[in-house]
Amino acid sequence: METGRLKTIVILILLCVNLAFGGILLSERLGAAEGNAQTRSELRSVLAGLGITVEEEQIPAGSVMLRRSVARERVTEDRLVTALLGPAEGQDQGGNIWYYENASGWAWCRGGGSFEIMVLAGVGSLEEQLEKGGVRARREGEKYICLAGDEPVFNCRFTITQRSGGIYLSGRCLLGESEEGESVDCTDVATLLLRFCDRIRDAGGVFSRVEEIGDGYVLNATASGMELVPVWQMKTDGGTWYMDLSAGRLVTVAA
Predict the structure, then answer these.
(1) Buried-most residue among 43, 62, 100, 101 (CB within 10 A)?
(2) By CB neighbour count within 10 A (0-12 exposed, 13-18 middle, 19+ buried), where does 6 fall?
(3) Number of helical (H) and strand (E) elements in the chain, helices listed first
(4) Taking the model in full, what pTM does it have?
(5) Beta-bridge partners for 172
(6) Longest CA–CA separation in the chain, Å
(7) For the chain, how are helix, strand and coil distributed in percent, rounded to 5?
(8) Inter-axis angle of helices 189-202 and 3-49, to 10 degrees?
(9) Cα–Cα distance between 133 and 116 in angstroms, integer?
(10) CA distances (Å), 39 to each of 45, 51, 121, 158, 185, in order?
(11) CB-based contacts of 176, cutoff 8 Å, min separation 6
């Protein structure tokens, strides 16, 4: 048999094998999609039986999230202050509090990520300067919420207001890089969502409609440091709640 014809036959065989595997993979993905759709439909019916209305598209997709540890880093803190005020030497006030001041304003940075900064001199776009300072955040109404990766940290928020001839920033942000820790399996959406609803009602919450469910983090300060805990946020017609996905309990988040 000619070498050219043999190569053609081999290529056709490989092409057929690839098509077969592609068909199997497509079938598996379609089956998974149908299974997810059925699960969402059934879950919606179960919740309806409990007097709770939720649209299928609002039910989260299953995922695996990571707990993250966060260490306060003076380098990150100095970078933020410098971006907004320019170079300013920090003064240790004790109690894990640092104070900065120069002709452009002043700043207080405390343990746990809380901060206050007064900017007296113009710095251009504050949002651009914050990004330059290492703060990743998005605006929600009159506040900004910090991000860890692409996920919101629900209790790391800050405001920007005008005060005494300057611009005043206050709130909480991540003053350090986060490191990945243990994984938290959030793929059993039905169990997690039903548990969430039970926890809310056990706490005395009253609601009949789920308006939005989103995942993210809560920054938790401990004796050994700080960590980002994976949570779900559920907005309802009766209020907003948060559940620690690893412990299955409600957590309090300051507005």
Answers:
(1) 100
(2) exposed
(3) 4, 14
(4) 0.78
(5) 114
(6) 91
(7) 35, 40, 25
(8) 20
(9) 15
(10) 10, 18, 56, 38, 18
(11) 70, 71, 72, 73, 76, 226
